[in-house]
Specification:
Elements: H1 2-14, H2 16-31, E1 32-36, E2 39-43, H3 47-54, H4 58-61, H5 64-75, H6 80-89, H7 92-102, H8 108-135, H9 137-145, H10 156-175, H11 184-203, H12 206-226, H13 230-250, H14 252-269, H15 277-294, H16 305-316, H17 328-353, H18 361-376, H19 383-400
Antiparallel strand pairs: 1-2
C-alpha cells in the first residue's frame, strides 16, 4: 500500500499513465487476496462485507457523489462520447476511495512518512528544474517576460499546487517533530522545505503561489484557534507578509511575472484585448457564466458542456482560443446547474468536516489547497488533478479512521 501511494505521488509529477497504474494497483490490493508462497490470486474473502461496510461509512463514499453526478448528467446530454469520457475520468472518486476503505489503515508513521517522502521528492525535482533553468537562463528569462512558465515536468500549474502542498507539509513535519531515526532529520526536512519555499517563488506560477500563501495563512489561523499558539501565529503571519516583498527584490523570475501581470491588468483595464493567459481566463469565466445563466437549475449536462462552451465562444469571442472555464465551481454549475453545485459542495466538504477531521493539519492543508485551487483552476477536470485529490484524500481518511490516528488515540 505504501509503495503504491509513493508511486502515485511521484507520478503526479511525471506520468499520468503510471499514476493510473498505481491507482489500479491499490484497487487490486483491495479486491484480490494475493499470496506469494505459494502464488495464489483470489477474490478477497471480505470483499462483500467491505462493500456493504463502505456504504455505511459516509466519509469514504461521500466524494463518490461527484462520480454519480457525472453519470446522471450524461443521461440528459446529447454528446454521449464526451459524457462517457467524463464518466471514466471520474472513476477514482469511487474506485480509489473504496480501495483505501478496504485496505489496512495507515499508521501515524506511515502517513507522515509519505509526506516526508513528498518533501524529498520535490526537493530533488526542483534541483533538476533549477539546473535546466541555469543552463538556459537567458532563453527562459526572455520567455518569462512574455508570460511563459519555467519548464517543469508535465503541467506547471499542477506541479506548483503539489509543490505548495509539499512545502506546507514540510512545515507541519518540523512542527510535529517527526523523524525516523534521528532528531537531525528535522534539520534536513527544514532545509529541504526552505529550499522548496524559495523555489516556488523562482517558478512564479501565480496559481500555486496564491494557493500556498492562502493555505499557509489558513493553517496558522487554525493553529491559533485550536492550540492557542498566538505568538507563533503572529510571527509566522509577519514572515508570510514579508516573503513576497523580499522575493520581488531578489528573484528575477518572480519580478518578471509580477511585471507581466501588471501589464496584463493595464491592458485589460484599458479595453485592449490580447492573447495573454489572464485575459483568456477571464473570457473563459464569462463564457462559463453565460452558459450557467441560460441553464441555471440542472445545467446543460456534463456531456454537452464542452460543445455549449465552444458555441458561446463563437458568439462572444470568435477570435479567442477556446478553453473550458478556469474555475471548478463554475464548471460544475454550468454542467449540472445549481443543484449539482450544491451536491458538489456537500460531497467535497463532508470528509473534511465530519468527525472534526479539519483538526489534522495535513488534512486541513489539503482542503484549503484544493478549495482555493478551485477558484483559479478547473482542477478536477483532468486525470492528474483527480488522481492528486483522491490519492491524498484517501491517505488522510485511511489514517484518520484508524486506531493510530492522533484524534482516535486515548
Amino acid at each position: 500500500m505504501l509503495f503504491f501511494c509513493a508511486v502515485g505521488m511521484t507520478m503526479i509529477i511525471y506520468s499520468p499513465y503510471i499514476l493510473s497504474n498505481a491507482q489500479i494497483g491499490l484497487l487490486a490490493c483491495a479486491v484480490f487476496d494475493i499470496q506469494l508462497k505459494p502464488f495464489k490470486v483470489r477474490l478477497h474473502p471480505r470483499l462483500v462485507q467491505n462493500w456493504f461496510a463502505f456504504w455505511k461509512t459516509p466519509v469514504f463514499w461521500a466524494p463518490s457523489v461527484l462520480f454519480i453526478m457525472v453519470l446522471v448528467g450524461a443521461l440528459y446530454s446529447s454528446d454521449i462520447f464526451y459524457g462517457f469520457e467524463r464518466f471514466v475520468l471520474k472513476l477514482p472518486f469511487f474506485g480509489l476511495l473504496f480501495a483505501f476503505f478496504c485496505l489496512p489503515r495507515l499508521t501515524r508513521r506511515g502517513y507522515m512518512g509519505l509526506f516526508y517522502y513528498l518533501v524529498i521528492l520535490l526537493f530533488l525535482t526542483n534541483l533538476g528544474i533549477g539546473a535546466n533553468y541555469l543552463l538556459h537562463f537567458e532563453e527562459i528569462n526572455q520567455a518569462l517576460e512574455m508570460g511563459q512558465p519555467i519548464p517543469t515536468p508535465r503541467n506547471h500549474i499542477r506541479y506548483s499546487l503539489l509543490l505548495g502542498l509539499g512545502i506546507l507539509s514540510g512545515f507541519v513535519l518540523v512542527h510535529k517533530n517527526f523523524y525516523f531515526r534521528s532528531q537531525a532529520e528535522r534539520w534536513m526536512i527544514a532545509g529541504f522545505t526552505i529550499f522548496n519555499f524559495v523555489f516556488i517563488h523562482i517558478l512564479s506560477v501565480r496559481s500555486g503561489l496564491a494557493v500556498m500563501y492562502c493555505s499557509l495563512i489558513g493553517w496558522v489561523l487554525i493553529l491559533m484557534w485550536t492550540q492557542k499558539k498566538f505568538l507563533f501565529g503572529l510571527l509566522t503571519l509577519a514572515a508570510v507578509a514579508s516573503a513576497p516583498v523580499m522575493a520581488y527584490y531578489t528573484i528575477p523570475s518572480f519580478q518578471s511575472k509580477i511585471s507581466y501581470a501588471n501589464w496584463e491588468w493595464h491592458e485589460f483595464m484599458h479595453g485592449r484585448t490580447s492573447t495573454s493567459s489572464d485575459q483568456g481566463r477571464l473570457r473563459s469565466l464569462d463564457v462559463g457564466y453565460q452558459v450557467f445563466r441560460e441553464h441555471p437549475i440542472i445545467g446543460v449536462g456534463v456531456g454537452d458542456l464542452k460543445q455549449e462552451i465552444y458555441k458561446k465562444y463563437d458568439q462572444l469571442y470568435p477570435d479567442s482560443k477556446k478553453i473550458m472555464p478556469h474555475n471548478q465551481f463554475l464548471s460544475v454549475a454550468a454542467g449540472s446547474g445549481i443543484i449539482g453545485l450544491l451536491l458538489f459542495l456537500v460531497a467535497f466538504c463532508y470528509p473534511f468536516l465530519a468527525r472534526r477531521h479539519y483538526r489534522n493539519p495535513f488534512f486541513a492543508i489539503l482542503f484549503l489547497t484544493f478549495f482555493l485551487s478551485f477558484i483559479v483552476e478547473n482542477t478536477l477536470e483532468n486525470s492528474i488533478g483527480i488522481g492528486f485529490f483522491c490519492l491524498f484524500l484517501g491517505m488522510g481518511l485511511s489514517y484518520l479512521t484508524g486506531q493510530d490516528s492522533e484524534q482516535n488515540r486515548i
